[in-house]
Specification:
heterodimer, A: 671 residues, alpha+beta, Nucleotidyltransferase, domain 5, six-stranded mixed β-sheet, 22 helices, B: 472 residues, Actin, Chain A, domain 4, 16 helices
Chain lengths: 671, 472
C-alpha cells in the first residue's frame, strides 16, 4: 500500500448539532474547514435524504427573464445542488446577509438564492424543485445526545459530507466516534464506510482520545459539554477507562442553560430563540459560586443560586421587579424595509448599508446610555454591570412579491438590542422545574460525574493526575466563565480540606512528585513514538522502592510465596491517599496559531452566533475556540496514525483487514 | 478432544462470531465480547426505582450513583447468597449490561441500514426483521457465569431467558470458579473468591468443580463495610456519620477530629430519595475508605496475639503511622490500629467489632477464610490436595485490600506447613476484579469450545433441563 498523503486524509467529526469535516491536513492545523448541520431532509422516495429542504412548486407564470432558456425540471433538480455546493464550498459569499444566517436561527431563510429560481420561470405549468437552503422544516436529526437514532439518515449525511468534499480514491477516513456509540454501532459504521466509500483505511477515534491528542497530553479527564449531554472520560496513558465513564449524561449540555434562561425570562416575553442568542452573547457569564452579583442587593441575592429547586419561589423570581425595563425594543421601526429597494437592487449591498447604519445607531445608543448612567465608570467588566445589552438577530418574513407570488417568502435579518439584568449570570443555576432530577444545577451534576468517573479509575495513583488535568471542551462550555465556575464547584464540593492533606505528607505517597518528563506537551508530529509518550507518567521505580521500604507492613513481611507478582505493588492501591487535593485544567497547546487566534477572538465576537451558511465553509469570521479541540486532535491523530505510523501500531483498519475479518474486527482498532 | 492440539481450521470459528460473555455478580455485572481482555461494560447490579408524574421509572447503570431522583429507591435482583431472587429485574439489568455498550438498544434492522436497499419496485419484506429487532442477542452466542452453588432451577431459568427472551443462538453456563482458574491459566486450582456479598472457596480439578469441596460464607466486601460502619459508630471523640455528597451544599474545611461545618441540602419529604439510596451512595465513600485506609494485618500471628519478640501486635500496629481520611462533609481523622481491626474478623472471628444493629450476625470461626479453605480441602480427595494448595488463585475485588494476600499466605503456611503453598494473585487490579469474566472471555474464544455450546435447536428439543446435562 502506498503511503498516505497529508492532503488526502478525510476527517469527519459528527456531532448532534454540527458535523465538522475537512479534507487534507494543512501545514498548520486549522479549525474544521466545513461545518455541516447534522440534519437531513426526507427526499422524494422513502429512505432517501437530501441535504436541503426541497420544495415542490407548481406555478404558471410569464417568463420573467426572457434570455433564459427553458429548463427541464429534472435538470433543475440535479444541477442545482451541484452549483450551490461549489458556490458554497469554494467562494465564501461576500454579502452580509448570506453569511449572517445563524445556524440556530430556525425558520430563517435566505433571500437571494431564490431569485435564481425566480428568473427561470416559464409560461407553462412547471414543477419546480428548489432547495430551500435555510428551512428547518421537516428536518430529520440523525443524532440525539450523541446516539444515532436514524441510521439511514446518518448514512445519508455521511454520504453528503463525503460527496461535498469529493476526496480522491486513495483517501483514508478518520471518523470521530461518540462515546455513546455501542460496539455494534461502530461495526455498522465500519461496514458502511468500507462498502460505500471503498476507503483503503479507516480509523474510528473516540472523541475523548482525540481531545487528548489535541492537547498533547496522555492523561486527562475530558469533559465534553454538548448540546444536551455531557461526556466525562478519564484517559490514562492514552487509554480510555471505560468503567465509570460518564456517557451522554442527559440534560447537562448547553440546552440546559438556554432552558434556564428561558425559565427566568419567560415572564418578559422572551422566546427560546432569544434566550439561545442571549446565551451565546458575550454578556452571559457564569460567575463562580459565591461571587456577589452586581447590583444593590448583591449580598442578598447571593443565596439565590443555591436554593434547592423545590424549596421556595425566591431565587430568580425575586429579582424580577428590579428589571422593569429589562426588555427595551429600541428599533422597532427596523422591520419596515424598503422592499422595492431589495427586490430591484443588490440585496446584499442594501442590507450591508443598513447594517452599517444600525451599527452607528447602536453606538449612539450605547453612548447615550453611558451618559445616562454617568455615575458609573464607563468601562466596567461585564460581571460588575447590573445590566447589559445584547443584539438579538431574527429573521423576519418579507411580504411576498408580485413576480413570485407562490414562492417561499424572503426573509430579512433584523437586529435589535435587548437589555438584560442579572439573569444573565444565572444560566447554570438550578431550574425551578427540575423534573426528574434532584440536582442543583448543571455544574454540580457535572462535578458529581467527574468525581464518580475519577474514583472509578482502577489505578489509584493516577487519580490525582486526572484531577489536575481537566479538559473542558464542547460548544456547550463556550459560555463565558463556564470552566472557572465548574472548577469552583468542584473545589467547593470535593477538594479535600488542607488539614486533611497536611497529614498526607506523613504517609508514603508518590502522586505529587513532579516527574521529569519531556513528552507531555510535545506537538504530535514530533512525537517520538507514534502512540505513546515513552517518558510519560510512569511511576518512578526509585520512589516506589523508597515508599515500600518505609512501610512497616512490608518490612516485617517474611519472604512470601515466590509466585507473588512482584510488580503488583505498582498497581495496588497502596501508598495513595484520597483525591483530589487540587483541581486544575490543562493549558491549551500554543503551537497552533490558528487555534490560538480563535481562542483569543472568541470572547470578543461571540455576539454573532454561528455565521455560516449550512454546509458552507467556516470562514475566517467563525470564532471557534478550543471548544472544538476534538477536531484539532483528529488532525494530530490522523497525521500520526495515517502518515507517520502508517499502520505499524494498528492505528487504523485497512481494507485488507476488513475483507478478511469483517466489520467486527473494528473492535481491535477502536481507539 | 486433546486441548493441547491446535484446532483444525475447519472447526475454528472464534473470529467469526463474537460471543458475549456475561458475568453477573451481586455488586456489579460485567459484560463484553469474548476475546477481549477486559469487559467493556461494567454496571452496578443495583437498579433504581422511582416514580415521576405518576409513572414508575427504572434506572440502571452508573447513573444510579450520579443523579439523585425524587423518591429514588435502590434494589438488587440478586439475593445475598448470590442466587437470583427477582428474575424479571435480573433479566432487565443483565440486558442493560450488554445493550448499553455492546449491542445497542436494538440491533439495526439490516433492511434499513442503507446497505441492503432494495431496487425500486421490489416489495420489502418487513415482517422478517420484526422478530430479530425485539431480540437483543439474536446474533451472538452467550456465555454466562454462575456461582458454584446455583440451584438447578435458577440455571434452567437462566437458559430460558437467554434462549427465549434474548433469542441467543447458542448458550453456555460456566461456574465462575472454573473461569477464574482459566483466567489464571490453570485447569486445576483452589479458587478463593472474595466478592461483595460472599466469599467462596472452590476446588477446581481439570476444569470441573469438585462440588463436595465448595464452601462459601457471607464475609465479603459488604460485611467489611458493616464492620467499618460499626467502627464509625463506636468512634471517639464522636461517632462518625457518613453524609453523602448529594446531601451537602457547602462545606468548610475543619481541623482533624473537629465536628464538620457543613450546610446540608434538604429535600421535601415527598421528593427525598429513599434510605436505600443513601446506603448505596455511602457505600461509595466506604469503598474509598477501604482503598485508602483499610489494611490487613500482615501476620504471621493474629492481631490480638503477641508477635515473635513479645510485643503485642496491636502495639506494633498502633505505633505505625496512621492514615487520614476525609469524609464528604469535611470531617477528617487519622485512623491508626482501627484500620486493621475492621478486616481482622475475616481471619479471626473473635476480632469482629460488635454491632447489634448490623445486618450481619456475628461471624463464626467456620466462616473465616482459613477455615473455609480447610473445609474445602477436607471435602476433596486427599491425593489432589497438595496440587490444589500449590495453585491457590485469589480473586474478587475485596481481595484487593492492602495486605490480604500476604496474610492469606501466612495463614495457609501455618495450616499446611508440609505441602508447598503457592498463591497466585494477579497484580493487575482489573485482572483481579474481573477474573471470572476474563476466564469466560478466554473460554468462549477458544475454537475447541465451540462444540460445547448448547444450540437453540438442542434447547428446543430437550428443554431447559439440558443445561444440567451439558454445563456441569
Amino acid at each position: 500500500m502506498p503511503p498516505f498523503k497529508d492532503e488526502h486524509i478525510l476527517i469527519i467529526a459528527p456531532g448532534s448539532q454540527v458535523t465538522l469535516a475537512q479534507l487534507g491536513l494543512p501545514e498548520s492545523f486549522t479549525p474544521a474547514r466545513y461545518r455541516f448541520p447534522t440534519r437531513m431532509f426526507p427526499g422524494e422516495k422513502k429512505g432517501e435524504y437530501e441535504p436541503y429542504k426541497i420544495r415542490e412548486r407548481r406555478q404558471e407564470v410569464k417568463v420573467a427573464n426572457g434570455s433564459d432558456a427553458p429548463k427541464e425540471d429534472v435538470e433543475m433538480k440535479d444541477a442545482q445542488p451541484a452549483t450551490e455546493e461549489t458556490a458554497n464550498g469554494e467562494a465564501p459569499k461576500t454579502e452580509g446577509t448570506d453569511e449572517a444566517k445563524a445556524e440556530g436561527a430556525e425558520g430563517a431563510a435566505e433571500g437571494e438564492k431564490k431569485e435564481e429560481n425566480g428568473e427561470n420561470v416559464q409560461t407553462v405549468e412547471e414543477i419546480f424543485y428548489e432547495e430551500d437552503v435555510a428551512s428547518q422544516e421537516g428536518a430529520v436529526c440523525p443524532m440525539e445526545n450523541g446516539r444515532i437514532v436514524d441510521w439511514p439518515c446518518f448514512f445519508a449525511l455521511l454520504t453528503h459530507v463525503y460527496n461535498t468534499l469529493s476526496p480522491p480514491f486513495h483517501t483514508p477516513i478518520m471518523l470521530i466516534a461518540e462515546p455513546v456509540w455501542s460496539l455494534r454501532d461502530r461495526e455498522a459504521i465500519t461496514q458502511f464506510v468500507f462498502e460505500k466509500f471503498k476507503t483503503p483505511a479507516f480509523c474510528l477515534l473516540d472523541s475523548a482520545l482525540a481531545v487528548c491528542y489535541g492537547y498533547g497530553v496522555s492523561t486527562a479527564t475530558v469533559i465534553d459539554v454538548g448540546k444536551d449531554k455531557v461526556d466525562v472520560t478519564a484517559v490514562t496513558d492514552f487509554l480510555i477507562n471505560e468503567h465509570g465513564r460518564g456517557i451522554a449524561l442527559e440534560g447537562c449540555g448547553g440546552d440546559y442553560m438556554t432552558d434556564r434562561l428561558l425559565e427566568l425570562l419567560a415572564s418578559k416575553r422572551f422566546t427560546r430563540e432569544m434566550c439561545e442568542q442571549l446565551k451565546r452573547s458575550n454578556i452571559t457569564e457564569l460567575l463562580p459560586q459565591g461571587t456577589p452579583l452586581p447590583g444593590t442587593a448583591a449580598t442578598a441575592r447571593q443565596d439565590a443560586p443555591q436554593a434547592a429547586p423545590g424549596s421556595a419561589q425566591t431565587g430568580p423570581e425575586a429579582n424580577q421587579p428590579r428589571n422593569q425595563n429589562g426588555n427595551t425594543d429600541r428599533d422597532e421601526d427596523e422591520g419596515v424595509l424598503d422592499v422595492a429597494a431589495i427586490v430591484s437592487g443588490n440585496t446584499s449591498e442594501f442590507l450591508a448599508n443598513r447594517e452599517k447604519e444600525k451599527e452607528k445607531e447602536k453606538e449612539k445608543a450605547t453612548t447615550k446610555k453611558g451618559a445616562d448612567q454617568s455615575s458609573k465608570p464607563v468601562r466596567l467588566p461585564n460581571s460588575k454591570k447590573e445590566k447589559a445589552t445584547f443584539q438579538y438577530h431574527e429573521f423576519v418574513r418579507l411580504e411576498p412579491e408580485k413576480d413570485a407570488p407562490s414562492g417561499p417568502g424572503r426573509f430579512i435579518r433584523h437586529a435589535r438590542d435587548i437589555e438584560i439584568g442579572i439573569e444573565r449570570f444565572l444560566a447554570a443555576t438550578p431550574k425551578q422545574t427540575a423534573g426528574e432530577r434532584l440536582s442543583s444545577g448543571i455544574l454540580e451534576d457535572i462535578a458529581t460525574q467527574i468525581h464518580h468517573t475519577i474514583l472509578a479509575v482502577p489505578d489509584a495513583t493516577k487519580r490525582s493526575d486526572l484531577w489536575d488535568s481537566l479538559i473542558v471542551v464542547g460548544n456547550g462550555s463556550r459560555v463565558k466563565g463556564f470552566t472557572q465556575a465548574l472548577l469552583a464547584t468542584i473545589t467547593q464540593k470535593f477538594v479535600l480540606s488542607p488539614s486533611g492533606t497536611i497529614f498526607t505528607s506523613e504517609i508514603p505517597s508518590n502522586f505529587s512528585t513532579p516527574l521529569p518528563t519531556g513528552g507531555t506537551n510535545t506537538p504530535a508530529p514530533q512525537m517520538p513514538g507514534p502512540m505513546h509518550h515513552p517518558g510519560g507518567h510512569g511511576v518512578n521505580p526509585l520512589l516506589v522502592a523508597a515508599t515500600h521500604s518505609s512501610n512497616p507492613a512490608a518490612t516485617n513481611m517474611p519472604p512470601g510465596t515466590p509466585s507473588l507478582d512482584q510488580s503488583f505493588s505498582h498497581h495496588r492501591s497502596t501508598g495513595h491517599s484520597q483525591t483530589p487535593t487540587s483541581v486544575r485544567t490543562v493549558k491549551a497547546p500554543e503551537y497552533f496559531p490558528e487555534w490560538k487566534e480563535q481562542t483569543a477572538s472568541n470572547a470578543a465576537s461571540q455576539n454573532a452566533p454561528g455565521l455560516n451558511g449550512p454546509g458552507g465553509p467556516a470562514s475566517g469570521g467563525s470564532h471557534r475556540g478550543m471548544e472544538e479541540a476534538v477536531f484539532l486532535g483528529a488532525q494530530v491523530a490522523s497525521k500520526v496514525i495515517f502518515v507517520l505510523d502508517q499502520g505499524l501500531s494498528k492505528g487504523f483498519m485497512s481494507r485488507v483487514e476488513y475483507n478478511e475479518n469483517g466489520p467486527s474486527a473494528i473492535h481491535e482498532y477502536v481507539m | 478432544m486433546n486441548p493441547s492440539n491446535a484446532p483444525s481450521a475447519a472447526e475454528y470459528g472464534g473470529d467469526e462470531v463474537s460471543a458475549i460473555v456475561l458475568d453477573p455478580g451481586f455488586s456489579t455485572t460485567r459484560a463484553g465480547f469474548a476475546g477481549e481482555d477486559t469487559p467493556k461494560s461494567l454496571i452496578p447490579t443495583y437498579y433504581g426505582k422511582y416514580s415521576f408524574e405518576g409513572q414508575g421509572k427504572l434506572i440502571y447503570g452508573d447513573d444510579v450513583f450520579v443523579t439523585p431522583r425524587p423518591g429514588l429507591s435502590i434494589h438488587n435482583p440478586i439475593g445475598r447468597d448470590g442466587v437470583v431472587e427477582d428474575w424479571d429485574m435480573a433479566e432487565k439489568v443483565w440486558e442493560y449490561s450488554f445493550t448499553s455498550k455492546l449491542t445497542g438498544a436494538k440491533p439495526g434492522n439490516p433492511l434499513h441500514n442503507g446497505l441492503n436497499d432494495l431496487p425500486e419496485g421490489e416489495l420489502p419484506s418487513e415482517m422478517e426483521g420484526v422478530e430479530s429487532e425485539e431480540r437483543p442477542l439474536a446474533d451472538s452466542p452467550l456465555l454466562m457465569s454462575e456461582s458454584s452453588w446455583n440451584p438447578a432451577k435458577a440455571r434452567e431459568k437462566t437458559i430460558e431467558i437467554a434462549m427465549e427472551k434474548w433469542g441467543s443462538p447458542a448458550f453456555y453456563l460456566a461456574r465462575n470458579g472454573v473461569l477464574a482458574a482459566f483466567a489464571a491459566g490453570k485447569a486445576s486450582a483452589l479458587v478463593v473468591d472474595i466478592g461483595a456479598s460472599n466469599i467462596s472457596v472452590t476446588p477446581v480439578h481439570d476444569g470441573m468443580i469438585l462440588k463436595r469441596g465448595v464452601q462459601h460464607s457471607p464475609l465479603g466486601g459488604d460485611y467489611i463495610s458493616s464492620q467499618i460502619r460499626a467502627l464509625f459508630k463506636s468512634n471517639s471523640p464522636q461517632p462518625i456519620i457518613i453524609t453523602p455528597h448529594y446531601l451537602i451544599s457547602a462545606k468548610t474545611a475543619v481541623e482533624a477530629g473537629q465536628p464538620p461545618q457543613v450546610k446540608y441540602k434538604t429535600f421535601p419529604p415527598e421528593r427525598a430519595p429513599d434510605a436505600s439510596y443513601r446506603t448505596l451512595v455511602e457505600e461509595r465513600t466506604l469503598s474509598e475508605f477501604k482503598e485508602c485506609v483499610v489494611q490487613v494485618w500482615p501476620g504471621p500471628t493474629k492481631l490480638s496475639s503477641t508477635g515473635p519478640n513479645g510485643t503485642p501486635n496491636e502495639e506494633i500496629a498502633r505505633n505505625s503511622p496512621g492514615r487520614p481520611f476525609e469524609f464528604p462533609d469535611g470531617y477528617n481523622q487519622v485512623f491508626g490500629v482501627d484500620r486493621y481491626r475492621v478486616v481482622e474478623s475475616l481471619f479471626d472471628a473473635k476480632a469482629a467489632i460488635q454491632d447489634p444493629e448490623s445486618l450481619f450476625p456475628a461471624p463464626t470461626q467456620a466462616q473465616t477464610v482459613p477455615e473455609l479453605i480447610k473445609a474445602a480441602l477436607n471435602g476433596v480427595d486427599v491425593d489432589i490436595r497438595p496440587h490444589l494448595l500449590s495453585n491457590v488463585v485469589v480473586t474478587g475485588a475485596s481481595s484487593l485490600l492492602y495486605g490480604f494476600t500476604d496474610r492469606l499466605n501466612q495463614e495457609l503456611m501455618q495450616l499446611y506447613p508440609g505441602p508447598r503453598v503457592r498463591i497466585s494473585a494477579p497484580g493487575n487490579t482489573s485482572e483481579r476484579r474481573f477474573s471470572s469474566w476474563i476466564g469466560g472471555s478466554i473460554l468462549a474464544s477458544l475454537g475447541t469450545f465451540h462444540q460445547m455450546w448448547i444450540s437453540k435447536k438442542e434447547f428446543d428439543e430437550h428443554g431447559p433441563n439440558i443445561v444440567e446435562k451439558r454445563c456441569k
